Amino acid sequence: MLLKLSGESLQGPEGCGIDPQAAHGVAVQLKELRELGIEVAVVIGGGNLFRGHAAAAQGMDRATADYMGMLATIINGLALQDALEKVGVFTRVQTSIQMAQVAEPYIRRRAMRHLEKGRVVIFAAGTGNPYFSTDTAAALRAIEVGAEVILKGTNVDGVYSADPKRNKQARRFERLRYLDVLRMGLKVMDATAVSLCMDHELPIVVFDLRRTGNIRRVVMGETIGTTVR
């Protein structure tokens, strides 16, 4: 399985940066999966440190802003690696932007070998290209390594017809089709990522990461959040 995390999953109550306790909480949940014998890959965003599209909207060159965002995902990847290794989980960070002193370059067969050996593999720096989100990177890497599902951990308990924090009438979906997501413009993953998953029949499960144990519950087949297939 591949877990897609936002950068915000590592931030603390101050709303930015990296909180070691938040990283530890994610690491403990991933350790539970490894103890079940599940191969685990992770793609993490960088929004807690830098948002490329937000900087571009304020006048920064889009490609430059996106590269800066990719570097933020590497920082988050290293933080999560540290948290995982502190709880006894062997971990490798692979990055689409080469920086040999910091992490391995992304090599598909090497990543698959790490997974076979029981290591958690964190894919950082997105696809290595500007204009592509970490959602798209998650879909691409999941397909490349043969993941059976993408789990997208968020701060809400599934996909809603509208923002549930602003609209009390918003309806939560338990199941959706890929075409429903694209047609209705639902905020599951971006359209490129959803289209990739649709083409390769890769399910997406959107769930609340904040509730401890939810990752394990989803993997064990409990009906949690929203499933797109």
Biggest beta sheet summary: 9 strands, mixed
What CATH calls the topology is Carbamate kinase
Query: In percent terms, what proportion of residues is strand?
Result: 15-25%
Structural class by sheet pairing and helices: alpha/beta
Poorly predicted regions are: none
SSE order, one letter for each helix or strand: EHEHHEEHEHEEEEHHEHE
User: Mean pLDDT, nearest integer?
Assistant: 94
Number of strands: 11
Name the shape in a single word.
globular
CATH evolutionary superfamily: Acetylglutamate kinase-like
Q: Can you describe this structure?
A:
By secondary structure, the chain is an alpha/beta fold. It has a single domain (2-228), classed as Acetylglutamate kinase-like (Carbamate kinase), CATH 3.40.1160.10. It has eight helices and eleven strands. Helix 1 (20-35) links the parallel strand 1 and strand 2. Helix 1 (20-35) packs across helix 3 (62-86), helix 5 runs parallel beside helix 7 and helix 6 runs antiparallel to helix 7.
Write the layout of secondary structure elements.
Elements: E1 2-5, H1 20-35, E2 41-44, H2 52-57, H3 62-86, E3 91-95, E4 104-105, H4 108-116, E5 120-124, H5 134-145, E6 150-154, E7 159-160, E8 172-173, E9 175-176, H6 178-184, H7 191-199, E10 204-208, H8 214-219, E11 226-228
